[in-house]
Amino acid sequence: MNGGNSSKGGEIHVLVDHLFRHKAGQLVASLTRLFGPENLHLAEDVVQETLLKALRQWPYYGIPENPGGWLFRVAKNQALDLLRREKRLQEKLSLISTENRKDEYFDTWLIEDGPFKDDQLTLIFICCHPIIKRESRVALALKTVGGFSVSEIARAFLLKEKTVAQRLVRAKRKIKENKIPFVFPRNEDMPRRLKAVLEVIYLLFNEGYSATTGDSLVRRDLCEEAIRLASLLAEHPVGDQPEVHALLALMHFQNSRSEARVDTVGNLLLLSQQDRSKWDRNSLESGFAHLDRAGKGDSLSQYHLMAGIAACHASAESFETTNWEDILYYYNHLSQINHSPVLALNRIVAVGMMDGPEAALDLMDKLNGVEELQNYYLLPATAGDLLMRIGKTEKARRQFVKALSLASNNTEKRFLKNRIKSCSG
After folding, report:
1. Of 297, 304, 313, 352, which one is least surrounded by beta carbons within 10 A?
2. Burial zone of 7 (CB within 10 Å; 0-12 exposed, 13-18 middle, 19+ buried)
């Protein structure tokens, strides 16, 4: 009996976790539209509490026929109760009454008006309002719309968790104090916010493509959501920009390799080890189509250059035929407009393929003292790989051990453990 209940509880926990990853951002966005951006923190809190309530109630009462609709109704009613206590409900009643009839259809939470018909994309633009500091905009959007934890955001930005938490508090305070409305920006305001919005979408994709924590290397739901949001943006006349299509090209190229990045038992495979016949042809075709549209304007963004690098890999028949000369050319231009230490590390990998591991190791010295990379496991992992290539296995082993101490994803940890074993002969 207990075993059956335990099994059922486990299944429900998996379902709720799935709904959290797929629907939490949509729930927060829709509740924010309903109750106003000044209640963004309230929306986040009630969504978290509702998911916990599902874990407590569903094992005893069964899973609702429409789990997503149940979550929305319970979260909305809890928010209403809290607002009643604070005596701020009256001004919301007329708006709320129009939403009641939609509850049973709220699996998708599409808004009926607005250029994108998507609450999440609208909320991203609110989070990227010019009044909010740039370093806080992306963090806020990832937290509220993407469902990222503070630790995941900290890793994405190579920051301390305390710093991220403080930025989130300040950003929410700005929204509340300035009464930023839940409306899509006017066309003339779009360019000012577009850069931050694209950064949010790409970081959302990156977390899906190389998950910070957990057992799986890839979180397909986040990759697909990032592509969906960017596609919605590209469909709008104001969002139909070369930079948006360049980002879509980049994400499609990278997403095409998802299935080939691990073997049948879940071990990470390097680009040189991947079976290219498993690369998704539809994603590759979409990537080249968007890359073509990205080239129709006069602008050259970082996404154009990164998409160019991804296209070099996508068009190579094998790892051995990869055009590293073009890839290094793109990295050289990219380093002039984006001074990210992570991109600098990626450029060093290309140098190692073009000019040899010794030349790349000489450049590594410049990055060893960069504060943002001190907790980034790929810094010592890259050094270890370069050292292995020149036969310095003991030094390589020490670098892989250091990388293992910094890695959080279980797939990456297994890969590093295997690299350490390979150094021991």
Report:
1. 297
2. exposed
Average pLDDT of the chain is 84
Has residue 272 got a pLDDT over 80?
yes
Percent over 90 (pLDDT), the chain = 41
Beta partners for residue 262, in sequence order = 268
- Residue 412 identity: E
* Whole-number percent of the chain with pLDDT over 70: 85
Classify the C-alpha dihedral 1-63-79-197 as positive or negative.
positive
CA distance 54 to 378: 38
* C-alpha Rg value of the chain to the nearest Å: 23
Dihedral angle computed from the Cα positions of residues 25, 27, 31 and 32, in that order, rounded to the nearest 10 degrees:
10
Instruction: Identify whether the C-beta of residue 170 lies closer than 8 Å to the C-beta of residue 138.
Output: no
- In the chain, count H helices and then E strands: 19, 0
CB crowding 329-342: b at 16 or more within 10 Å, else e: bbbeebeeeeeebb
Whether the Cβ atoms of residue 276 and residue 320 lie closer than 8 Å to each other: no
Measured CA to CA, the distance from residue 23 to residue 100 in angstroms comes to 19
3-state SS assignment for residue 268: strand
**Backbone phi, psi, residue 301, to 5°:** -100, 175
pLDDT given for residue 108 in this prediction? 41
* Count of C-beta atoms within a 10 Å radius of residue 369: 8
DSSP string, 102-162: TGGGTTS---SSSSS--HHHHHHHHHT-TTS-HHHHHHHHHHHTS---HHHHHHHHT--HH
Name 268's bridge partners. Answer: 262
Calpha distance 82→16 (Å, rounded): 24
The encoded tokens of residue 197 equal 């919005």
| Cα torsion angle, 171, 176, 182, 184, sign | negative
CB 152 within 8 A of CB 207: yes
Q: Which amino acid makes up residue 64?
A: P
Amino acid at 263: D
pLDDT, tens digit (0-9, with 9 covering 90-100), for 59-118: 888 888 888 888 888 999 998 888 887 765 555 555 555 555 444 434 443 333 444 557
pTM of the entire structure?
0.80
- For residues 308-320, average pLDDT: 96
In angstroms, the CA 35 to CA 82 distance is 11
Q: Using an 8 Å Cβ cutoff, are 197 and 89 in contact?
A: no
17 CB-side CA count, 13 A: 8
Query: What pLDDT, on a 0 to 100 scale, did the predictor assign at position 336?
Result: 94
DSSP string, 47-65: HHHHHHHHHHHHHHH---S
